[in-house]
């Protein structure tokens, strides 16, 4: 079976595309016009951030993980979950300073965290596959 391999250029491209889409979404209020767009962006951005962290951090931070694919996935997914939490903090700051009442409440926040977590897990598995450690 053919597997998808990600390199750093692809990961950076995904992150930049997500950030541009996020800015455009805020500018043109796409969050309110396209019901699924916010969740898609949370998945995509946390996926891209987690993928970058995993691809850059594997060699220096996760040494010894070569024979422990599950630990690699858990470590990278955990970092992705943390990035998702920081993203939600940033949204709150944005809501407080730049554009009051842009955030729709705790349900929006928890759904964002859930799709971000899914993005983090998918990215951690992509890192495992890319680094040649997965089946």
What does this entry look like structurally?
The protein is mainly α and about 140 residues long. Helices cover about 75% and strands about 0% of the residues. The protein is built from five helices and no strands. Helix 1 (about 10-25) runs antiparallel to helix 3, helix 3 crosses helix 4 (about 70-95) and helix 4 (about 70-95) packs antiparallel against helix 5. The N and C termini lie close together (about 10 Å). The mean pLDDT is about 80.
Structural class by secondary-structure content:
mainly alpha
Ranges with pLDDT <50 over ≥5 residues? none
Shape summary: elongated
Approximately how much helix is present in the residues?
over 70%
Average pLDDT figure: 82
Number of strands: 0
Straight-line distance between termini: 10 Å
**SS summary, helix count:** 5
Q: What radius of gyration results from the CA coordinates?
A: 16 Å
Strand residue content: under 5%
Main beta-sheet strand count, sense and barrel state: none
The helix-strand sequence is HHHHH
Topology:
Layout: H1 8-27, H2 30-33, H3 37-61, H4 69-97, H5 106-130
A few lines on this structure:
This protein has 135 residues and is mostly helical. Helices cover 76% and strands 0% of the residues. It is elongated, with a radius of gyration of 16 Å.
What brief labels describe this structure?
single chain; 135 residues; mainly alpha
């Amino acid at each position: 079976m053919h597997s998808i391999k990600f390199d750093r250029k692809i990961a950076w491209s995904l992150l930049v595309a997500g950030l541009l889409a996020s800015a455009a979404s805020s500018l043109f209020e796409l969050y309110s016009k396209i019901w699924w767009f916010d969740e898609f962006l949370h998945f995509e951005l946390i996926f891209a951030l987690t993928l970058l962290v995993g691809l850059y951090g594997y060699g220096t931070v996760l040494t010894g993980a070569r024979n422990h694919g599950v630990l690699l996935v858990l470590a990278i997914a955990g970092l992705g979950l943390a990035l998702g939490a920081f993203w939600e903090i940033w949204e709150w700051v944005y809501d407080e300073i730049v554009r009051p009442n842009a955030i729709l409440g705790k349900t929006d926040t928890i759904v964002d965290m859930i799709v971000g977590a899914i993005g983090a897990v998918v990215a951690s598995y992509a890192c495992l596959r890319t680094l040649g450690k997965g089946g």
